Amino acid sequence: MPDLPxxxxxxxxxxxxxxxxxxxxxxxLFAGLFILGTWWARRGLPAxxxxxxxxxxxxxxxxxxxELELTNTSRLPLVWVQLxxxxxxxxxxxxxxxxxxxLPGRGRARLRYELIATRRGYYELGPLRLRTGDLxxxxxxxxxxxxxxxxxxxxxxxxLPALGLPSRTPFGRLPHAQRLxxxxxxxxxxxxxxxxxxxxxxxxxxSAAVGTWQTKQLEPAISLETMIVLNxxxxxxxxxxxxxxxxxxxxxxxxxxxxxxxxxxxxxxLAHGRDxxxxxxxxxxxxxxxxxxxxxxxxxxxxxxxxxxxxxxPFPERLRVxxxxxxxxxxxVVITPEPSAEVLGAAYALRRAGFAVTLVLTAxxxxxxxxxxxxxxxxxxxxxxxxxxSLARWPES
Length: 397
Known about the structure:
Blueprint: H1 4-18, H2 21-44, E1 48-53, E2 57-59, E3 63-72, E4 78-86, E5 96-103, E6 108-116, E7 121-125, E8 128-132, E9 142-146, E10 149-154, E11 169-175, E12 182-192, H3 204-210, E13 214-223, E14 226-231, H4 242-262, E15 267-272, E16 287-290, H5 293-305, H6 315-325, E17 331-336, H7 341-352, E18 356-361, H8 368-376, E19 381-384, H9 388-392
Parallel strand pairs: 2-10, 14-15, 14-17, 17-18, 18-19
Antiparallel strand pairs: 1-3, 3-6, 4-5, 4-8, 7-10, 8-9, 11-13, 12-13, 15-16
Helix pairs in contact: 1-2, 4-5, 6-7
Protein backbone atom coordinates (compact mmCIF):
# COMPACT_ATOMS: atom_id res chain seq x y z
CA MET A 1 0.00 0.00 0.00
CA PRO A 2 2.23 2.83 -1.22
CA ASP A 3 -0.41 5.47 -0.26
CA LEU A 4 -0.63 4.31 3.37
CA PRO A 5 1.52 7.14 4.83
CA UNK A 6 -0.75 9.70 3.13
CA UNK A 7 -3.81 7.83 4.40
CA UNK A 8 -2.42 7.86 7.97
CA UNK A 9 -1.72 11.60 7.73
CA UNK A 10 -5.27 12.31 6.57
CA UNK A 11 -6.64 10.04 9.30
CA UNK A 12 -4.63 11.89 11.95
CA UNK A 13 -5.84 15.28 10.70
CA UNK A 14 -9.42 14.03 10.67
CA UNK A 15 -9.11 12.64 14.22
CA UNK A 16 -7.65 15.95 15.48
CA UNK A 17 -10.41 18.01 13.88
CA UNK A 18 -13.27 15.79 15.04
CA UNK A 19 -11.59 14.81 18.35
CA UNK A 20 -12.95 11.31 17.85
CA UNK A 21 -11.29 8.57 19.94
CA UNK A 22 -12.33 5.80 17.55
CA UNK A 23 -10.54 7.47 14.66
CA UNK A 24 -7.47 7.85 16.89
CA UNK A 25 -7.61 4.10 17.68
CA UNK A 26 -7.84 3.26 13.97
CA UNK A 27 -4.91 5.57 13.32
CA UNK A 28 -2.80 3.93 16.06
CA LEU A 29 -3.70 0.46 14.78
CA PHE A 30 -2.72 1.14 11.17
CA ALA A 31 0.37 3.13 12.16
CA GLY A 32 1.51 0.34 14.47
CA LEU A 33 0.99 -2.31 11.81
CA PHE A 34 2.84 -0.18 9.27
CA ILE A 35 5.83 0.43 11.56
CA LEU A 36 5.95 -3.21 12.70
CA GLY A 37 5.74 -4.53 9.10
CA THR A 38 8.49 -2.19 7.89
CA TRP A 39 10.77 -3.08 10.79
CA TRP A 40 10.07 -6.79 10.32
CA ALA A 41 10.90 -6.74 6.61
CA ARG A 42 14.06 -4.68 7.14
CA ARG A 43 15.31 -7.07 9.80
CA GLY A 44 14.28 -10.25 8.01
CA LEU A 45 15.47 -9.63 4.43
CA PRO A 46 19.21 -9.12 5.16
CA ALA A 47 19.15 -12.37 7.14
CA UNK A 48 18.39 -14.39 4.01
CA UNK A 49 21.21 -16.51 2.54
CA UNK A 50 21.22 -18.09 -0.92
CA UNK A 51 23.09 -21.22 -2.04
CA UNK A 52 23.11 -22.34 -5.70
CA UNK A 53 24.02 -25.97 -6.35
CA UNK A 54 24.54 -26.79 -10.00
CA UNK A 55 27.07 -27.95 -12.61
CA UNK A 56 28.47 -24.86 -14.31
CA UNK A 57 29.94 -26.80 -17.27
CA UNK A 58 27.57 -28.42 -19.79
CA UNK A 59 27.85 -30.02 -23.20
CA UNK A 60 25.30 -29.34 -25.93
CA UNK A 61 22.05 -31.21 -25.34
CA UNK A 62 22.77 -31.96 -21.68
CA UNK A 63 20.22 -31.40 -18.93
CA UNK A 64 21.29 -30.38 -15.44
CA UNK A 65 19.29 -29.58 -12.33
CA UNK A 66 19.83 -26.35 -10.40
CA GLU A 67 18.91 -26.27 -6.71
CA LEU A 68 18.33 -22.96 -4.96
CA GLU A 69 18.42 -23.15 -1.17
CA LEU A 70 17.11 -20.13 0.72
CA THR A 71 18.01 -19.96 4.42
CA ASN A 72 16.55 -17.63 7.03
CA THR A 73 19.35 -17.04 9.56
CA SER A 74 17.11 -14.86 11.74
CA ARG A 75 14.66 -15.96 14.44
CA LEU A 76 12.00 -13.79 12.82
CA PRO A 77 9.71 -15.76 10.48
CA LEU A 78 9.03 -14.37 7.03
CA VAL A 79 5.44 -14.96 6.01
CA TRP A 80 6.12 -14.55 2.33
CA VAL A 81 9.25 -14.23 0.16
CA GLN A 82 8.91 -13.76 -3.58
CA LEU A 83 11.78 -15.19 -5.65
CA UNK A 84 12.61 -14.22 -9.25
CA UNK A 85 15.58 -15.77 -11.12
CA UNK A 86 16.35 -14.35 -14.57
CA UNK A 87 17.68 -16.96 -17.02
CA UNK A 88 19.03 -16.91 -20.60
CA UNK A 89 16.75 -18.48 -23.19
CA UNK A 90 19.63 -20.63 -24.45
CA UNK A 91 19.51 -22.74 -21.29
CA UNK A 92 15.97 -22.32 -19.98
CA UNK A 93 12.48 -21.61 -21.30
CA UNK A 94 10.73 -19.41 -20.14
CA UNK A 95 13.53 -16.95 -19.35
CA UNK A 96 12.83 -16.83 -15.61
CA UNK A 97 11.81 -18.88 -12.57
CA UNK A 98 9.29 -17.47 -10.09
CA UNK A 99 8.16 -18.76 -6.72
CA UNK A 100 6.71 -17.58 -3.39
CA UNK A 101 7.83 -19.35 -0.21
CA UNK A 102 7.28 -18.97 3.54
CA LEU A 103 10.26 -19.19 5.86
CA PRO A 104 10.00 -19.81 9.61
CA GLY A 105 12.73 -18.58 11.90
CA ARG A 106 15.97 -20.48 11.16
CA GLY A 107 14.07 -22.20 8.38
CA ARG A 108 14.99 -23.25 4.83
CA ALA A 109 13.25 -23.54 1.49
CA ARG A 110 14.44 -25.28 -1.66
CA LEU A 111 13.54 -24.67 -5.29
CA ARG A 112 14.67 -26.76 -8.25
CA TYR A 113 14.63 -26.15 -11.98
CA GLU A 114 16.34 -27.70 -15.01
CA LEU A 115 18.86 -26.27 -17.44
CA ILE A 116 18.87 -27.52 -21.04
CA ALA A 117 22.00 -26.62 -23.05
CA THR A 118 20.69 -25.71 -26.52
CA ARG A 119 23.50 -23.42 -27.72
CA ARG A 120 27.18 -23.12 -26.86
CA GLY A 121 28.25 -19.99 -25.05
CA TYR A 122 28.97 -18.23 -21.77
CA TYR A 123 25.83 -17.37 -19.80
CA GLU A 124 24.82 -16.08 -16.39
CA LEU A 125 22.06 -17.40 -14.14
CA GLY A 126 20.43 -14.44 -12.46
CA PRO A 127 20.56 -11.97 -10.96
CA LEU A 128 18.22 -13.53 -8.41
CA ARG A 129 15.87 -11.06 -6.74
CA LEU A 130 14.01 -11.54 -3.44
CA ARG A 131 11.10 -9.44 -2.20
CA THR A 132 9.34 -9.59 1.16
CA GLY A 133 7.02 -7.50 3.29
CA ASP A 134 4.36 -7.73 5.97
CA LEU A 135 1.42 -10.11 5.83
CA UNK A 136 -1.18 -7.45 5.01
CA UNK A 137 0.96 -5.69 2.43
CA UNK A 138 0.74 -2.42 4.30
CA UNK A 139 4.48 -1.60 4.12
CA UNK A 140 6.44 -1.18 0.95
CA UNK A 141 8.14 -4.53 -0.02
CA UNK A 142 11.90 -4.75 0.52
CA UNK A 143 14.15 -6.09 -2.26
CA UNK A 144 17.42 -8.03 -2.06
CA UNK A 145 19.45 -9.02 -5.14
CA UNK A 146 22.11 -11.74 -5.47
CA UNK A 147 24.89 -11.67 -8.08
CA UNK A 148 24.59 -13.81 -11.23
CA UNK A 149 26.26 -17.21 -11.43
CA UNK A 150 28.15 -18.27 -14.59
CA UNK A 151 27.49 -21.33 -16.73
CA UNK A 152 29.43 -22.47 -19.80
CA UNK A 153 28.04 -24.63 -22.61
CA UNK A 154 30.83 -26.34 -24.56
CA UNK A 155 30.72 -26.41 -28.37
CA UNK A 156 29.64 -29.44 -30.33
CA UNK A 157 32.27 -32.08 -31.10
CA UNK A 158 32.00 -33.98 -34.37
CA UNK A 159 33.97 -37.28 -34.48
CA LEU A 160 36.66 -37.10 -37.16
CA PRO A 161 37.45 -40.37 -38.99
CA ALA A 162 41.09 -39.40 -39.60
CA LEU A 163 43.25 -36.39 -38.92
CA GLY A 164 45.14 -36.34 -42.21
CA LEU A 165 47.27 -33.41 -41.09
CA PRO A 166 50.87 -32.88 -42.21
CA SER A 167 53.62 -32.72 -39.60
CA ARG A 168 57.32 -31.95 -39.57
CA THR A 169 58.00 -33.23 -36.06
CA PRO A 170 59.45 -36.79 -35.95
CA PHE A 171 59.66 -39.29 -33.06
CA GLY A 172 56.05 -39.32 -31.96
CA ARG A 173 53.26 -41.84 -31.48
CA LEU A 174 51.39 -41.61 -34.78
CA PRO A 175 52.36 -44.13 -37.49
CA HIS A 176 53.67 -42.56 -40.68
CA ALA A 177 54.38 -43.86 -44.18
CA GLN A 178 57.74 -42.13 -44.65
CA ARG A 179 60.81 -44.05 -43.37
CA LEU A 180 62.41 -40.66 -42.70
CA UNK A 181 60.40 -40.48 -39.48
CA UNK A 182 61.52 -43.80 -37.95
CA UNK A 183 61.28 -43.63 -34.16
CA UNK A 184 64.22 -45.33 -32.34
CA UNK A 185 61.95 -46.09 -29.37
CA UNK A 186 59.41 -48.09 -31.42
CA UNK A 187 61.01 -51.43 -32.40
CA UNK A 188 58.72 -53.68 -34.43
CA UNK A 189 61.18 -56.45 -35.37
CA UNK A 190 64.56 -57.21 -36.94
CA UNK A 191 65.95 -57.55 -40.47
CA UNK A 192 69.27 -58.43 -42.10
CA UNK A 193 71.99 -55.85 -41.86
CA UNK A 194 72.35 -53.59 -44.92
CA UNK A 195 75.28 -51.33 -45.81
CA UNK A 196 74.67 -47.89 -44.34
CA UNK A 197 72.79 -49.10 -41.24
CA UNK A 198 73.94 -47.54 -37.97
CA UNK A 199 75.84 -49.85 -35.61
CA UNK A 200 73.70 -48.40 -32.83
CA UNK A 201 70.70 -50.21 -34.33
CA UNK A 202 72.32 -53.67 -34.26
CA UNK A 203 70.27 -56.21 -32.28
CA UNK A 204 73.04 -58.18 -30.62
CA UNK A 205 70.89 -60.99 -29.20
CA UNK A 206 69.21 -61.70 -32.54
CA SER A 207 72.58 -61.50 -34.35
CA ALA A 208 74.08 -64.10 -31.97
CA ALA A 209 71.09 -66.41 -32.37
CA VAL A 210 70.92 -66.21 -36.18
CA GLY A 211 74.65 -66.01 -36.86
CA THR A 212 74.44 -62.92 -39.07
CA TRP A 213 74.17 -59.26 -38.30
CA GLN A 214 70.59 -58.25 -37.50
CA THR A 215 69.35 -54.64 -37.45
CA LYS A 216 66.41 -53.35 -35.42
CA GLN A 217 63.40 -52.57 -37.60
CA LEU A 218 61.78 -49.33 -36.46
CA GLU A 219 58.22 -48.11 -36.93
CA PRO A 220 57.85 -44.81 -38.79
CA ALA A 221 56.12 -42.36 -36.45
CA ILE A 222 55.55 -38.64 -36.08
CA SER A 223 54.48 -36.25 -33.35
CA LEU A 224 51.46 -34.13 -34.27
CA GLU A 225 51.70 -30.96 -32.19
CA THR A 226 48.82 -28.89 -33.51
CA MET A 227 48.07 -25.20 -33.08
CA ILE A 228 44.50 -24.31 -34.06
CA VAL A 229 43.98 -20.70 -35.12
CA LEU A 230 40.34 -19.54 -35.36
CA ASN A 231 39.39 -16.29 -37.11
CA UNK A 232 36.15 -14.71 -35.82
CA UNK A 233 36.83 -11.14 -36.95
CA UNK A 234 33.39 -9.78 -37.90
CA UNK A 235 34.36 -7.73 -41.02
CA UNK A 236 35.63 -10.89 -42.72
CA UNK A 237 32.21 -12.59 -42.59
CA UNK A 238 29.17 -11.99 -44.79
CA UNK A 239 26.21 -10.54 -42.90
CA UNK A 240 23.94 -13.17 -44.47
CA UNK A 241 25.70 -16.25 -43.08
CA UNK A 242 28.11 -15.05 -40.40
CA UNK A 243 26.37 -17.03 -37.66
CA UNK A 244 26.37 -20.37 -39.52
CA UNK A 245 29.93 -19.93 -40.79
CA UNK A 246 31.37 -18.86 -37.43
CA UNK A 247 29.63 -21.68 -35.54
CA UNK A 248 30.96 -24.14 -38.12
CA UNK A 249 34.45 -22.77 -37.47
CA UNK A 250 34.05 -23.18 -33.71
CA UNK A 251 32.75 -26.73 -34.14
CA UNK A 252 35.67 -27.55 -36.45
CA UNK A 253 38.18 -26.17 -33.93
CA UNK A 254 36.62 -28.12 -31.04
CA UNK A 255 36.40 -31.35 -33.06
CA UNK A 256 39.98 -31.07 -34.26
CA UNK A 257 41.33 -30.34 -30.76
CA UNK A 258 39.39 -33.31 -29.39
CA UNK A 259 40.71 -35.64 -32.11
CA UNK A 260 44.32 -34.53 -31.62
CA UNK A 261 44.22 -34.95 -27.83
CA UNK A 262 42.44 -38.31 -28.11
CA UNK A 263 45.31 -39.45 -30.34
CA UNK A 264 47.69 -38.68 -27.49
CA UNK A 265 49.06 -35.55 -29.13
CA UNK A 266 49.37 -31.90 -28.09
CA UNK A 267 46.83 -29.27 -29.15
CA UNK A 268 46.82 -25.48 -28.71
CA UNK A 269 44.48 -22.64 -29.61
CA LEU A 270 44.63 -19.04 -30.72
CA ALA A 271 41.06 -17.71 -30.92
CA HIS A 272 40.73 -14.34 -32.66
CA GLY A 273 37.35 -13.15 -31.39
CA ARG A 274 35.59 -11.35 -28.53
CA ASP A 275 35.83 -12.90 -25.08
CA UNK A 276 33.25 -11.66 -22.51
CA UNK A 277 35.67 -12.44 -19.66
CA UNK A 278 38.55 -10.29 -20.92
CA UNK A 279 38.77 -6.47 -20.56
CA UNK A 280 36.88 -4.67 -23.36
CA UNK A 281 36.06 -8.03 -24.96
CA UNK A 282 39.60 -8.51 -26.26
CA UNK A 283 40.64 -11.92 -27.66
CA UNK A 284 41.60 -14.51 -25.04
CA UNK A 285 45.26 -15.44 -24.47
CA UNK A 286 46.96 -18.00 -26.67
CA UNK A 287 47.03 -21.58 -25.37
CA UNK A 288 50.29 -23.27 -26.38
CA UNK A 289 50.06 -26.95 -27.44
CA UNK A 290 49.86 -29.45 -24.59
CA UNK A 291 48.53 -33.02 -24.43
CA UNK A 292 45.94 -34.28 -21.97
CA UNK A 293 42.24 -33.89 -21.25
CA UNK A 294 42.76 -31.09 -18.74
CA UNK A 295 44.28 -28.92 -21.46
CA UNK A 296 41.52 -29.97 -23.88
CA UNK A 297 38.91 -28.65 -21.44
CA UNK A 298 40.71 -25.28 -21.35
CA UNK A 299 40.52 -25.17 -25.15
CA UNK A 300 36.83 -26.08 -25.16
CA UNK A 301 36.13 -23.45 -22.50
CA UNK A 302 37.69 -20.74 -24.66
CA UNK A 303 35.75 -21.96 -27.70
CA UNK A 304 32.54 -21.88 -25.66
CA UNK A 305 33.05 -18.22 -24.71
CA UNK A 306 34.44 -16.83 -27.96
CA UNK A 307 32.16 -14.59 -30.03
CA UNK A 308 32.24 -12.91 -33.43
CA UNK A 309 33.02 -9.22 -33.14
CA UNK A 310 34.92 -6.27 -34.60
CA UNK A 311 38.50 -6.43 -33.34
CA UNK A 312 41.16 -3.75 -33.38
CA UNK A 313 44.00 -6.14 -34.27
CA PRO A 314 43.90 -7.60 -37.82
CA PHE A 315 43.82 -11.38 -38.03
CA PRO A 316 47.10 -11.71 -40.00
CA GLU A 317 48.93 -9.94 -37.16
CA ARG A 318 47.58 -12.44 -34.62
CA LEU A 319 48.55 -15.22 -37.02
CA ARG A 320 52.17 -14.06 -36.93
CA VAL A 321 52.17 -14.42 -33.14
CA UNK A 322 51.98 -18.19 -33.62
CA UNK A 323 55.52 -18.25 -35.05
CA UNK A 324 56.87 -17.12 -31.68
CA UNK A 325 54.69 -19.34 -29.47
CA UNK A 326 54.25 -22.67 -31.29
CA UNK A 327 57.03 -25.30 -31.16
CA UNK A 328 59.10 -25.68 -34.32
CA UNK A 329 57.66 -28.14 -36.83
CA UNK A 330 54.16 -27.95 -35.33
CA UNK A 331 51.09 -28.21 -37.52
CA UNK A 332 49.17 -24.94 -37.83
CA VAL A 333 45.48 -25.24 -38.74
CA VAL A 334 44.07 -21.86 -39.76
CA ILE A 335 40.25 -21.76 -39.67
CA THR A 336 39.02 -18.69 -41.54
CA PRO A 337 36.09 -17.77 -43.80
CA GLU A 338 38.12 -16.73 -46.88
CA PRO A 339 41.72 -17.13 -48.10
CA SER A 340 42.44 -13.40 -48.44
CA ALA A 341 45.80 -12.24 -49.75
CA GLU A 342 46.79 -11.08 -46.25
CA VAL A 343 45.90 -14.43 -44.67
CA LEU A 344 47.73 -16.35 -47.40
CA GLY A 345 50.81 -14.17 -46.92
CA ALA A 346 50.85 -14.72 -43.14
CA ALA A 347 50.28 -18.47 -43.56
CA TYR A 348 53.09 -18.66 -46.11
CA ALA A 349 55.42 -16.91 -43.65
CA LEU A 350 54.57 -19.61 -41.09
CA ARG A 351 55.34 -22.31 -43.64
CA ARG A 352 58.71 -20.75 -44.39
CA ALA A 353 59.42 -20.62 -40.65
CA GLY A 354 59.23 -24.42 -40.49
CA PHE A 355 55.57 -25.11 -39.76
CA ALA A 356 53.16 -27.39 -41.62
CA VAL A 357 50.16 -25.18 -42.44
CA THR A 358 46.62 -26.23 -43.40
CA LEU A 359 43.83 -23.80 -44.27
CA VAL A 360 40.23 -24.62 -43.29
CA LEU A 361 37.68 -22.42 -45.08
CA THR A 362 34.16 -22.06 -43.68
CA ALA A 363 32.50 -19.29 -45.76
CA UNK A 364 34.00 -19.58 -49.20
CA UNK A 365 32.70 -17.05 -51.75
CA UNK A 366 34.75 -18.28 -54.70
CA UNK A 367 34.82 -21.83 -56.12
CA UNK A 368 36.67 -24.48 -54.08
CA UNK A 369 38.94 -25.20 -57.05
CA UNK A 370 39.99 -21.57 -57.27
CA UNK A 371 40.59 -21.34 -53.51
CA UNK A 372 42.69 -24.51 -53.49
CA UNK A 373 44.70 -23.27 -56.45
CA UNK A 374 45.45 -19.97 -54.70
CA UNK A 375 46.52 -21.78 -51.54
CA UNK A 376 48.55 -24.37 -53.47
CA UNK A 377 50.54 -21.52 -55.06
CA UNK A 378 51.83 -20.82 -51.53
CA UNK A 379 52.36 -24.52 -50.78
CA UNK A 380 49.39 -24.67 -48.41
CA UNK A 381 46.96 -27.58 -47.97
CA UNK A 382 43.28 -26.61 -48.01
CA UNK A 383 40.09 -28.08 -46.53
CA UNK A 384 36.72 -26.55 -47.50
CA UNK A 385 33.81 -26.99 -45.07
CA UNK A 386 30.17 -26.37 -45.93
CA UNK A 387 28.40 -27.95 -42.94
CA UNK A 388 28.89 -30.52 -40.20
CA UNK A 389 28.51 -33.38 -42.71
CA SER A 390 31.55 -32.17 -44.63
CA LEU A 391 33.39 -31.81 -41.30
CA ALA A 392 32.55 -35.44 -40.48
CA ARG A 393 34.29 -36.46 -43.73
CA TRP A 394 37.54 -34.73 -42.72
CA PRO A 395 40.01 -34.53 -44.42
CA GLU A 396 38.21 -35.42 -47.66
CA SER A 397 36.37 -32.05 -47.78
